[in-house]
Hints:
The protein has 8 helices and 10 strands. By secondary structure, it is of the alpha/beta class. It folds into 2 domains: 154 residues, P-loop containing nucleotide triphosphate hydrolases (Rossmann fold, 3-Layer(aba) Sandwich), CATH 3.40.50; 66 residues, no CATH class.
Amino acid sequence: MLQVANLDVVIDSKPILENVSLSVADSEIVAVLGPSGSGKSTLLRAIAGLVEPATGDIKWDGRSIANVSTHRRGFGLMFQGYALFPHMTVGENVGFGLKMAGKDDIDGQVEEALSWVGLKGFESRQVESLSGGEQQRVALARTLAPRPDLVMLDEPLGALDRNLRQKLVTDTREVLEERDVTAIVVTHDREEAVAMSNRLALMRAGTIVQTGLLDELLANPADEWVAEFIA
């Protein structure tokens, strides 16, 4: 279980996150939903250990990880735009994290991860030869291959056209649920957030203003902004 408590992040003397608290239960998928510039990506980076909080704490299974280095947290972060290595094959991209962690049987684990996302047999393909949807699947396979305790997806479908996004929303959630993954999905799209998650966390101006199911938020919005944003 992930617990973020009263987290503040300041970058270049500017407050980016203020008093952010969020919990994610084991096997739960939570969507952090909010407009651009609300601090969603910074929250993921703080959880991953890529940004140092000014105050507050981050706990995993009740243990503080605030001072644990990024590579020891056991979390996976899929960046917006996928950040695939263009000079590597699909298999080399998916196996990159496994290789860095010194894992055995990398080829077998790459094959398995690609099968999770419907790309079995793509190991030798060049990344630049793939469609946008295929690149998204490769990035997801690379994130899942090391079997992270927590998966974080930063606008995972933002670069794709709407028709393709609608299919991949369903496919991505199915992959996460089949793997029994604990996950946070960041998005600015309400429909995408609802379709990909068990619960929503609405973010505005660097803080989480309300969490709950869509029906709960619609019935009892915290304020007028929440009511308008999710309408």
